[in-house]
Write a structure and sequence with these properties.
Chains A, B: One of its GO terms (cellular component) is peroxisome. The structure is a homodimer. Chain A is of the alpha+beta class. Chain A has three domains: 91 residues, no CATH class; 148 residues, Butyryl-CoA Dehydrogenase, subunit A, domain 2 (Beta Barrel); 332 residues, Butyryl-CoA Dehydrogenase, subunit A, domain 3 (Up-down Bundle). Chain A is 52% helix and 9% strand. In chain A, a hairpin with a 5-residue loop joins strand 10 and strand 11. In chain A, helix 9 runs antiparallel to helix 10, helix 11 crosses helix 14 and helix 18 packs antiparallel against helix 19. Chains A and B meet through helix 5, strand 6, helix 10, helix 11 and helix 12 of A and helix 5, strand 6, helix 10, helix 11 and helix 12 of B.
Chain lengths: 692, 692
């Protein structure tokens, strides 16, 4: 065993936040940038204006001593986090009032959510609660309640799910059936002109709504409306839960927090038990339904409009997937170019950067490719959704099916990849990623609900599959689909296509890659549709028992192809001035497609698109594509513009300070406020002293 | 919208712990058992005797008011959990002393670890610390320290990793090189006959060792031994850190907890900074090395023995993977037969059981197959390891390479599948799985370190790959491998084999499935070995840069094949009396193999084992195999014998009580001890009242 003094001396300096020193390795990686980072950042945010707004929000958060994110957060109990965030919520209210109040709904959410550590207390009030009033209330109700919500004089939540009934959104768009199975009742008392709300069973307990437990004073409660013993289906009612002066719960209302969770520690997801709670008839949200003084029930307008509320959340979730994966990548990639492990470089004892291990690159580069792809696709979906909202006002529901198809599919595919990606990154940082100071544990656990809430991903893929199958049926009836379904017109051509792949170069060609993804999707769609068409089973059995795995797999393959198309479309059509920006995005598009094919290319062997030998070409192509991206990894990750003040990471900050701050935060953490922990003297020392 | 009264009335009753009622659905599933559950349970535990011992441990834990696990645990702060577990540690000491003391090392660990909620405080003392003394101490040191450890008069830890240096176990067995890069120094002071321990840099701070922060009074510290300015490599030293009377740290020692983490909340992973700490020369653990009074350094014996310590941990981790996955399955499967969602059954409005959705079955059945396979394989590895320990005492290291190969490979493949499996199960329970009361969040986060500690999984797969590549080289030199490498002798035959798969039935045949897995592994090994043999790159570049993804993929395929072989071997050779036990295990073996092939069968298309159409046959076969297992899911899961007292789950208990207890625990949880939370009056009411 020899001395390794030499290697110690030459080891590149890591960063120091305290001394404002940037790690040598990180600095060198930055110098490799071959493109206009600013231009890419602007397009990533959806335009210069949006980026400037975002930067403005960041500077507000960073410069405010109450709002500024802190590593102490990781070490707080739930109670402390919640109280801390009440304080911050108040501060956002103050700032919002003086600075952003010009357009409350649009501007408030982005400015804090861009930066807020933990789950923002007013989150539900400002999204679901406010949307419900706007979308489900009639003009009078909107005029009465919305201003109060805007002024934060009503803090509310969205009380739909029950202990026995999840976000049971069995939306068959042709036949809107919300909230099957909900058990809470709203019985009309004609005499007093009131509804009486009740939770008749344990399973009817409202369970899970955010801000229901402790924070919300109001709730939009979904309950089965019963008039004269007749059930008129589940309808939304406005309910005041707490006294405005004392904030104690009102009579007949029992509510509270549901307890500790995997993540979302600072959110008071709650339960609510109702016992003969009376509300005026006018508290029925009545844009689409009406109950008159005599108890006559009528439906007004098109119930499909209701669906837009839920869809908005899914569109936001799709955008959030890209953004969150970008945060994890920022932390992990910086760590991977500063942290070195094992002397495995020829001619030197200096350890190798994590990111210079092929296995590490194979984890990170695909995730970066997904981030850019998902971001641009989601921005396009957001535009489509806004168009839909406009159209619906004139009774045009033309975009509804497509927006439902995409928002369900994106939600399912993107959130799974994002969640798994954060976990991969966390694990790739070893112990440092397991430690809260990295920022990754909280990022992962707070992101976790995205795969299951607002429609479980498996159900969402099945929802997304519906329009695919419907389109196939329509084609058989002579329909010619366009847009993202355009490729359905040429299934025969696709399924007989030969890839002619003779080497890795053939798989670095974007046209070939697009074809490959189209063929894969076409094959899955065709075989699934065929099996379902020829099966003698009932529709229920086909969709839930016999072919549901086929449907999920098909929907995912289709969504990943569509995403690729939109991504290429963005690259081709966005007016980038710097040609290298386009080139880098194209390189990422290659990695995207190759990642997909490396995971699942059996369909291509089945159709004959791939032949013997192509598996090796595929792997070689990915190695080459990843090697091309490697020098641009740090610039491409930092183009996502995630500020230090947001990530609060002792290993992924912009200084490449991966040790000093970690140790400092550790030293200052809670358990170290006492030298000898409570319980040692009472329980452990007697053992040590042989006195037990 | 119609009334769904009818369906409400017919809905099967869920369970109630309070009223000792078992859910109707769960009861019916249990009745379907077609095999001798007890016989399977016994073999799962490695024999009747071990099962009885295990049950004995369970009853001790269940019946002791201090030791009994509680749902309160999920709602405790780190400080509370740690203090609570000090109390319980004391109680285990008392019970152990009176009941189990006959064989301390062997019996203590299994009896508490089988049942203990959170991470046991004495865990490191009794494993790594105790093992170090036994393995690294000379006879005199063992005689001096081991009895004290056994009596718990020395509580210690294993201080190896540093802030800048992970569990850097670059073990090249041919040339043992431990702990590359560690920076802590132990400088010999000849005059005083002492070593002086120092942490010369920030990165040399000992970081991560369990029980180092607050609990351990002693540590085995790894430090670079310097005598007369010469570096003699990293060696282990015994260090007292805390005063036995007061438990305050001794002069020159700064240590503490490293902070909050993703999981392991109750474990005090710590840091340690040493400043001129003097220890006697005799504190060098000197079974394999010696420094005499004059400072002369000598090496004694075979350093490979050291490796057995680390290997023992990996073998335990492999067994732990199966056991932990079994816990998650117990919770999730029970929930999936009681929880019903969506009216998707023909002829009834009663909602469908989660487990009657094909997508749900495709998640659960493979995980159950892995659980049984990993368990039986790990038990065999444990036997091999014990043989190795015996052999080594007589200087026979024959089994070392193989045991290293298997323990690294199992560790990497099994822990990844187990961790991902827990996560899949947690997500499949939707909101209920996200809530701590399910037991799943803690299970997942406390299991999480397994994929990264004791050798990161990527590195472990690369380690495991070494013996594969070495064996290939040896074959070229005329060597004929046996045992698990037997199939290497017939690569040519395997790679030209045709599967002759004409329908799903051909893929339900175990011989065909074994061939398929062998072909897949053979193809990957052959292509990787060939590419590496013909490459002109240096060994470093080949292993870390050019072909490391190939190596990882190859090692995994090989390990999964070997596991299948061992699993089949167990089924064939274990003297089961009930033929249905064998039949059920065979059904699970089919699911195991089909799951593997559905994930990755490209190699089979490449070799021609699979031909066009086989993808559909494969999926059909899996659907059939899973459908066969479906009625036995609950009996097969409950044969794993996971007691309610261990899982502490409000959704996965043996009563099928999935609602009542959940709500009760929620109501009693911490945040609900106050009606109006601190901060509401100060920060929120002023907003509500328009006073801000």
């Amino acid at each position: 065993m020899e001395s390794n003094k030499t290697s110690q001396e030459q080891k590149p300096k890591v960063g120091s936040i305290k001394n404002k020193i940037v790690a040598q390795d990180l600095e060198e990686e930055r110098k490799k940038a071959n493109f206009d980072i600013k231009e890419l950042t602007e397009s990533y945010f959806g335009g210069k204006e949006k980026l400037e707004q975002h930067n403005d929000h960041i500077s507000v958060m960073e410069n405010d001593p109450i709002l500024r994110n802190t590593e102490k957060w990781y070490d707080m109990t739930r109670e402390e986090q919640i109280e801390h965030n009440f304080k911050r919520a108040r501060r956002t209210y103050e700032i919002n009032k003086e600075k952003y109040y010009h357009n409350y709904e649009v501007s408030y959410i982005p400015w804090f959510s861009a930066m807020f550590q933990g789950i923002f207390p007013f989150g539900l009030t400002m999204s679901m609660f406010s949307l419900c009033i706007q979308q489900l209330g009639d003009d009078e109700q909107v005029a009465k309640w919305l201003p109060l919500v805007k002024q934060m004089k009503m803090i509310g939540c969205y009380a739909q799910t029950e202990l026995g009934h999840g976000s049971n959104v069995a939306v068959i768009l042709e036949q809107v059936q919300y909230f099957q199975g909900l058990e809470t009742t709203a019985t009309f008392d004609k005499e007093k002109d009131e509804f009486i709300l009740n939770s008749p069973t344990i399973t009817s307990t409202k369970f899970w709504p955010g801000e229901l437990g402790k924070f919300g004073g109001w709730a939009v409660v979904y309950a089965k409306m019963i008039i004269n013993g007749k059930n008129h289906g589940v309808q939304p009612f406005m309910l005041q839960m707490r006294d405005t002066e004392t904030y104690e719960t009102l009579p007949g209302i029992e509510c509270g927090d549901i307890g500790p969770k995997f993540g979302y520690a600072s959110k008071d997801n709650g339960y609510l038990i109702l016992k003969n709670v009376r509300i005026p008839r006018s508290n029925l949200l009545q844009r689409y339904v009406n109950v008159d003084r005599e108890g006559h029930f009528t439906i007004k307008g098109d119930l499909r409009s209701l669906y837009s509320v839920m869809m908005f959340i899914r569109v936001s979730i799709a955008i959030g997937a890209a953004k969150t994966l970008g945060v994890a990548l920022t932390i992990g990639t910086r760590y991977a170019v500063v942290r070195r492990q094992f002397s495995t470089q020829d001619g030197t004892k200096i350890e190798r950067k994590l990111l210079d291990y092929q296995t590490h690159q194979f984890k990170y580069t695909p995730l970066l490719a997904y981030t850019y792809a998902f971001n641009f696709t989601s921005l396009a979906l957001m535009e489509m959704h806004q168009q839909l909202l406009k159209d619906m006002k004139t009774g045009n529901f033309g975009l509804l099916d497509l927006a439902h198809h995409l928002s369900s599919g994106y939600k399912a595919s993107y959130t799974r990849i994002c969640y798994d990606g954060i976990d991969t990154i966390r694990q790739s940082c070893g112990g440092a990623g397991f430690l809260a100071w990295s920022g990754l544990p909280t990022l992962q656990t707070d992101y976790a609900p995205n795969t299951t809430f607002e429609g479980d991903n498996t159900v969402m893929h099945q929802q997304s599959a519906r329009l695919i199958l419907k389109t196939i049926k329509n084609i058989q009836r002579g329909f010619k689909p366009t847009g993202i379904f355009d490729y359905f017109n040429k299934f025969e051509e696709l399924l007989s296509k030969k890839g002619q792949v003779k080497g890795s170069a053939d798989l670095l060609c974007l046209v070939n890659l697009e074809n490959a993804l189209a063929v894969r999707s076409a094959f899955k769609i065709k075989t699934t549709a065929m099996k379902m068409a020829t099966s003698q089973l009932s529709e229920n059995e086909k969709a839930n028992s016999a072919f549901s795995v086929d449907m999920v797999s098909m929907a995912h393959a289709h969504i990943m192809y569509v995403t690729f198309k939109y991504f290429l479309n963005h690259i081709e059509n966005h007016p980038y001035k710097c040609p290298k920006v386009k080139e880098n995005l194209k390189n990422l598009a290659r990695v995207y497609a190759l990642t997909e094919l490396l995971q699942d290319s059996v369909s291509l062997y089945e159709t004959g698109f791939f032949t013997v030998g192509n598996a090796q070409h595929l792997l070689e192509a990915q190695k080459e594509a990843i090697a091309i991206v490697r020098p641009q990894m740090i610039p491409l990750v930092e183009a996502l513009a995630v500020p230090d003040s947001y990530i609060v990471s002792a290993i992924g900050n912009s200084y490449g300070d991966i040790y000093e701050t970690q140790l400092e935060w550790a030293k200052n953490s809670k358990l170290n406020q006492t030298s000898v922990l409570p319980g040692i003297k009472e329980h452990i020392l007697p053992i040590l002293h042989g006195k037990l």
